[in-house]
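Practice problem: predict the structure.
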Amino acid sequence: MSDESYGSTFSGNPFIINYLYWTNITCSDLADPDQAGLGILVSSIIAALTTIILSLSRSQQQPHWTDQVILSFSDQQLITGFALLLSSYVNLYAYKEDFVIEDALDYQDAHFVLVVYLGCLSSSSHLICLLRWAQLCEVEEPGHTKVEEMMQVRKWIILIFALFLTGSAATSYHTFRPIFWLLQGAPGPGSDDIVYAESWLIAQRVIPAFLILYVFWICYMQVSSELKEKLEKALSHVENCLKKTLPTKQTKRVMCLIQFCLFSRPKFALGIQTFGVIISILFVLLQKFSQPPEITDYALELGIQEWCGLNNPGDNRWGFGQTVAVAMLVLPFLSLIDAYKGRRGPALSFSPSFYYEQSASSEDTNIQLGWW
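Answer:
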C-alpha cells in the first residue's frame, strides 16, 4: 500500500513508498510490470539517450542523415510517455475497487511516481529534439509548408503532454520527494512530523509542477516564433510604461530580466533539458532499484508488515507490455541503420524541397522524386 492510504508513514527512504498492511499478500501482489518492468525502463532510457546524443552531436546547421532518426526516437519517447501516464490513472481507479479507497487520486503509490519520472524523461528528450530541429529550420528556406506542418503538430502534442505531466506531478506529493527530503535534512524513519508538515506537503505539490511547466514554457518559446513575437510586442508597451517612471538604465535592466525569464536563450533551454534528462534517469533508476529498509517498531505499531520496493519478482515479470516496449526500439534503430548506409546519398531533410534527380538516358529526361 501507499502511505496515503492508511495515514502518513515514512520509511526513511524517499524512494520507498509502498508497504504491506496485511499479512496475506506479498509485494508482488502490488506489482505492475507494464509500468515498472525492466523492459519499460531499458527502452525508455535507451531511446532518450540515443535522442540526446544524436541531437547534441549535430553541429552542422544543415540537413544531416541523422535528422529523421532523431525524430523517430523522440516521437516514440513522447507516445510511450503518454501511454504510461494514461495507464497510471487507469490503475488508480482499479486500486480504488481492489482496496476500497474512497478517492482514487488519494492513492499515489511508487508506480505512479515512477511513471511521472518516466514522463519527465520523455518530455525532456523530445524537447531537446525540437530545440535542435528549430535551429535547423532557421537556416531552411522560409515558407516550407511541410516544415511548418510537422512542427505545428508536434508543438500541440508536446503542449498537451506537458499539461498532463504537470497535473500529474501536482496530484501527488510523493513526486520529487527526495529533493525536499534532502532540504529537510534527510530525516529518518518515523519522522512524519517533519516529512509530512503541511507547508512541506504544499511545496511538494506546487513547486515541481511549476518547474515542469516553466521549463516547458522557455523551451516552447524557442520553437514558437509567432507566440514569441506577440509577447515581444506586448512587452514593448510595458517598456514604454516603465520609461515614464524609471531611469533609462533601470528600464533596460528590468526589461532584460523580464525577457530572460519569459524567453530565456536557446542554449540555456537546451542545457536545462539536458540536465532534466540526467536527473530523470537518476530518479527512475533510484525509484526502481532502491532497497526497502527493515521494519521499525514505529512501523509495526502502525500495522505495517513490510516495505515494498519496485525491484521484485512481480514487477520484473516479463509480459506483453514489456516485450512491446523493447520491440518498439527496433523500428527507430532500423531507421538509424538505413540512414547510416545511405549517408553518402541525399541527406534526410525536413525541407519539402528535398529531392534527387535521376538521369533516364533512354528517354533523355530527368525523373524527380521527393517530399512535397
